[in-house]
Design brief:
Layout lengths: L10 E8 L6 E4 L19 E4 L5 E6 L5 E8 L13 H9 L10 H8 L3 E7 L3 E8 L3 H13 L7 H20 L6 H9 L14 H5 L3 H11 L5 E7 L3 H12 L22 E7 L6 E7 L7 H13 L5 H9 L7 E6 L4 E8 L6 H18 L3 H17 L4 H15 L4 H10 L3 H11 L6 E7 L11 E2 L50 E4 L5 E6 L5 E9 L12 H8 L9 H10 L3 E6 L3 E9 L3 H13 L5 H17 L4 H14 L13 H4 L4 H11 L6 E6 L3 H14 L21 E5 L5 E11 L6 H12 L5 H9 L3 E8 L6 E10 L3 H15 L5 H18 L3 H14 L5 H11 L2 H11 L6 E6 L1 H11 L4 E4 L8
Parallel strand pairs: 4-8, 9-13, 9-14, 16-20, 21-25, 21-26
Antiparallel strand pairs: 1-2, 1-6, 3-4, 5-7, 5-8, 6-7, 10-12, 10-13, 11-12, 15-16, 17-19, 17-20, 18-19, 22-24, 22-25, 23-24
């Protein structure tokens, strides 16, 4: 599917610490949810705001929908406050802030919050840093304690050892998200060339490795004292709170924090580019050429940002957009084209990006972009196009604001940077008010004839694809050296310091009354054609999220043509018998809806989201797509070409290589789940349109299928809207394939796949464990909780917190009808590969035997309390319904699981761990740089190491 930027939010460059997936990358600003009484055109965001004597601005928002509370602290300091030679420091300090503080136990930030059933993280972007937690309401006082201690009392606890360890963690994050992936250096090149050397946006948020390595303890102390005063921050508390009680607690916990020095505001400073710059990069990990053009634009909160956001949609947001028409449909140069506006505090950027088909000249792409822009100038756009975008605005307003956490984050940012916690209301109004004249004005002001920075990224050795005249860009490359030990770090001793004297007691408060998770009310109906319907009436926002789930999916693919189901799913979005692809897309957009079709390992799913008032017409479009496919040969050819391009682009992605070969080893080459759901270049090459029709005719049936509906709609309205689908979709038997028994690789085997010059090694370990219908499934999930579920798990605590080898390490027990694996995975710095493997082996070997009564209680607390916030969103509630229909679970299955958990003791946990997670039963896969890491892995494997190529074939 083509990328579409969100109308309501510019993308932010953010760098996160704590639990992935947050990272130092482009992020859309989270959007808050309206109160239950909010209606279209009458959106409101009530709050109470006050300022403490030390300058901390506090915003409170009540939302009693769920027994949870979200905290967001936004500090007005980002990478734009750094100095050359000390880049990446704002993000690095964010990491340091999660370590220790004067009055909390060592590691409390990263470990205890998850054990209390909560979630926490932080992120840094060019202009600011934010910290957040969302917890069951019984941990309210505890988060007050942790948050206030981090803001006001952490600097004395920082040690040289902790500093050295966190430097390695941040360097691992940079390697994982930038240095070891395709196109990871583009942002660095862009910033160096778009902004002058003294501009605060000249460097990346993540910074450079040499700068990170040079960070010192005095640097950390100076940064804290200069920028982390409460007078430079906003605290937002949202959720199930009492305003008066919360104000008193904020005063008690935060009121004594010492005020910091005044931080002068930075004035907007556009890029000031005077001439076009063209640069190129030969990328070791890229397999596809990419062209990017970036035009200087305008800072955040300026009225022109809304017109630029609309402009990005008009240029490339749908099939009728001029750039899409020229690049994708007519010249067939790429599977898609992206346009987006990114505004920051001081300046903005408007970006056009095309990742082209293999071996495509980027000069051709550049010419096609220019042709598309000329068409826009001469042909303009229709009123219908504007109407489509305005329809999306209302849906986007609600879609991005489901959780109290996203609400807290948005209110914090808007208060700190715009002075208005409810700026989102104005944001939506200004986006809706954009006119035709506004769009053409900003096009002429920021794009037409204006200078830009253009980057040509080509696979290594394909310089012939670069736009003529481009200059080679300078990019720092870290050298991986075998056996280097100077990056070995450890926990170190705790800091010795004299505690800050405070009037109020800062010892750990107790829990409040524990909220119990209760399943939402679920209704179920059976239609005459066999279609089952499951629903949850949820009125928090005026939206409905629903799907039609059809069993089979990838599991019904012919082995030699794996990827057929995925192509069937994609074809269902390419128009209908009555609508061209463009007409179908327009009909969906005019409803302000979204509809997607995807194939998973075991089902094909049509999923949609719409305003509650538009449920019936959106469902009618889903029915038309499902029952009247267009089977357009031209669209099929385009999809095949796009698929080949995307598969080619994954060939040097170490994470993809590791995952695919791990599955192939577990399932064996004769099992369809040994292939990715999208297939491979080999299996998809011979798929024809007739193959798709044959799959559709044999397998798309209401027999065994289910409709899941969550949102502001009741059972009667849903069943009435489903009547046409009930009468039009005739049932037919579908024979689900009987897969051969998986013949996984022998336990204990270790496999190595070479990705030359990889800065990190991707590690997988696991085994086939059990089916989702197995009575032990819940027990296995519970048993994994303390091992690898989140950053409090032992894998992350050991490999990241203690050793600094990785950005994160996790484990999971997958749930599906077929036998599914238990998996451990991580990415570690290259020269810590051998040591990391050995630590994983030792941890897994000891996990079961050392599981204690205290561990049992910790696991129960983490799971039970975590359930209170795990099912807040419509999407999470939809997941409940899917599990009920797929695995024939009780409507109260989560409550039943909790009862089962409460009965488990040490012996139950140990038996489950021994049965499904024993280290002696695991297969290991390592993907990394053979030249430097092969011998280390061979030692781990006791000499029995098998070398594979990227497709899983043995290398002699």
């Amino acid at each position: 599917m083509r990328h579409k930027t969100t109308i309501l939010a510019a993308l932010l460059l953010a760098a996160a610490c704590g639990a992935p997936p947050a990272s130092a990358q482009t992020k859309a600003k989270p959007k808050p949810k309206p109160t239950p009484a909010a209606k279209a055109g009458a959106f409101s965001l009530p709050y109470e705001k006050f300022t403490l004597e030390n300058g901390l601005e506090v915003v409170l928002h009540e939302d009693h929908s769920d027994p949870i509370v979200a905290f967001a602290t936004v500090v007005h300091v980002g990478s734009n406050r750094e100095k050359p030679g000390k880049t990446g420091f704002a993000h690095f300090f964010e990491h340091m802030s999660f370590n220790d503080s004067e009055n909390t136990p060592v590691g409390a930030n990263r470990k205890l919050i998850e054990e209390w059933g909560g979630q926490r993280n932080g992120s840094t972007w060019s202009d600011g840093t934010q910290y957040y937690e969302v917890v069951p309401k019984d941990a309210f006082d505890k988060i007050m304690w942790i948050d206030s201690d981090r803001l006001g009392y952490m600097i004395k606890t920082v040690t040289t050892e902790a500093l050295a360890r966190e430097i390695q963690v941040v360097k691992n994050e940079k390697r994982q998200n930038y240095d070891n992936v395709a196109y990871g250096s583009v942002n660095e090149v862009l910033r160096k060339n778009l902004y002058p050397a003294d501009h605060p946006y000249n460097w990346t948020v993540i910074g450079s490795l040499p700068d990170l390595q040079a960070a010192t303890l005095p640097d950390v102390q100076e940064f804290y004292r200069q920028y982390y005063g409460p007078n430079n921050a906003t605290l937002v508390i949202a959720g199930d709170i009492n305003i008066a009680e919360t104000k008193a607690k904020v005063q008690r916990w935060f009121g004594e924090i010492k005020k910091g020095p005044a931080v002068p505001a930075l004035k907007p400073r556009p890029a000031g580019l005077t001439q076009t710059k063209s640069l190129y990069i030969e990328d070791n990990f890229a397999r596809l050429p990419q062209l990017q053009m970036v035009f200087p634009s305008i800072q955040e909160y300026h009225r022109d940002t809304y017109a630029l956001l609309v402009l990005s949609e008009l240029l490339a947001g749908n099939r009728t957009s001029p750039l899409y028409k020229v690049i994708v449909e007519e010249r067939k140069l790429a599977p898609n084209v992206v346009a987006y506006q990114n505004s920051s505090e001081l300046a903005g950027e408007f970006t056009l990006q095309v990742r082209a088909n293999p071996n495509t000249s980027l000069q051709q792409v550049h010419s096609a972009i220019e042709e598309g822009l000329k068409r826009f100038e001469t042909q303009g756009f229709s009123d219908t196009e504007l109407a489509r975008i305005r329809a999306k605005i209302e849906t986007d307003l609600y879609s991005g604001v489901e959780s109290v956490l996203s609400k807290a984050l948005q209110m914090g940012r808007d208060n700190e940077f715009a002075g208005d916690p409810a700026y989102l209301v104005k944001d939506a109004q200004m986006a809706q008010a954009v006119t035709r004249a506004d769009v053409m004005r900003v096009y002429n002001q920021y794009l037409k004839g204006k200078p830009y920075v253009m980057t040509s990224v080509v696979p290594k050795g394909q310089q012939n694809l670069v736009v003529p005249g481009a200059q080679l860009a300078t990019v720092y490359q870290e050298k991986v050296v075998a056996g280097v030990q100077n990056e070995d770090v450890g926990q170190g001793k705790e800091a010795v310091f004299e505690k800050t004297v405070t009037k109020n007691d800062r010892s750990e408060p107790g829990f409040l009354q524990t909220p119990l998770f209760k399943m939402p009310a679920i209704w179920n109906a059976a239609l005459a054609n066999g279609l089952q319907v499951y629903g949850i009436d949820n009125r928090e926002i005026p939206l409905v999220t629903f799907d039609v789930t059809i069993p089979g999916g990838h599991s019904l693919d012919p082995l030699a043509k794996a990827g057929t189901a995925s192509l069937v799913a994609q074809m269902l979005t390419q128009g209908t018998a009555r609508k061209t692809p463009a007409q179908l897309e327009e009909a969906i957009d005019l409803l302000g809806a979204s509809i997607s079709v995807n194939s998973t390992a075991e089902e094909i799913r049509v999923q949609a989201r719409c305003l509650a008032r538009n449920f019936a017409p959106t469902l009618a479009l889903v029915q038309e797509m499902l029952l009247q496919p267009r089977w357009d040969a031209t669209e099929f050819a385009r999809l095949k070409s796009s698929l080949a391009t995307n598969l080619k682009g994954q060939e040097a992605n170490a994470a993809v290589i590791a995952s695919q070969n791990f599955n192939r080893l577990l399932y064996g080459p004769s099992h369809v789940l040994s292939y990715p759901t999208t297939g491979t270049l080999a299996t998809t090459a011979g798929i024809t349109l007739d193959d798709l029709k044959a799959y559709y005719n044999a397998n798309i049936s209401p027999s065994g299928a289910a409709v899941h509906v969550v949102g502001a709609i009741d059972q009667n309205a849903v069943t009435a809207a489903l009547k046409p689908l009930e009468t039009s979709w005739a049932a037919k038997p579908v024979r689900l394939a009987q897969q051969p028994a998986p013949a996984q690789a022998p336990a204990g085997n270790v496999y190595f796949i070479d990705v030359p010059e990889a800065k990190q090694s991707v590690l997988y370990a696991g085994r086939l464990a059990l089916r989702g219908t197995d009575p032990d499934m819940s027990k296995a999930t519970f048993a994994n909780t303390l091992l690898g579920a989140g950053s409090s798990g032992r894998l992350t605590q050991l490999l990241r917190i203690q050793k600094g080898y990785t950005y994160g390490a996790y484990s999971a027990v997958q749930e599906q009808q077929e036998m599914a694996p238990f998996v451990v995975s991580t990415s570690v710095r290259a020269n810590a590969t051998g040591a990391s493997l050995q630590l994983i082996r030792e941890l897994l070997t000891n996990y079961g035997p050392t599981f204690s009564p205290a561990d049992v209680e910790t696991a129960k607390s983490k799971i039970m309390k975590g359930n209170t916030l795990a099912y807040e969103s419509q999407g999470a509630k939809l997941g409940i319904l899917r599990r009920i229909s797929k695995f024939h679970k009780s409507p109260k299955f989560l409550e039943d699981d909790q009862q089962q958990l409460m009965k488990m003791g040490v012996a139950d946990f140990q038996a489950t761990i021994g049965k499904y997670m024993a280290e002696k039963d695991l297969v290991y896969v390592v993907v990394g740089d053979k030249a430097t890491q092969y011998e280390e892995v061979k030692k781990f494997a006791n000499g029995k190491l098998t070398l594979l190529d990227a497709t899983g074939n043995p290398v002699n």
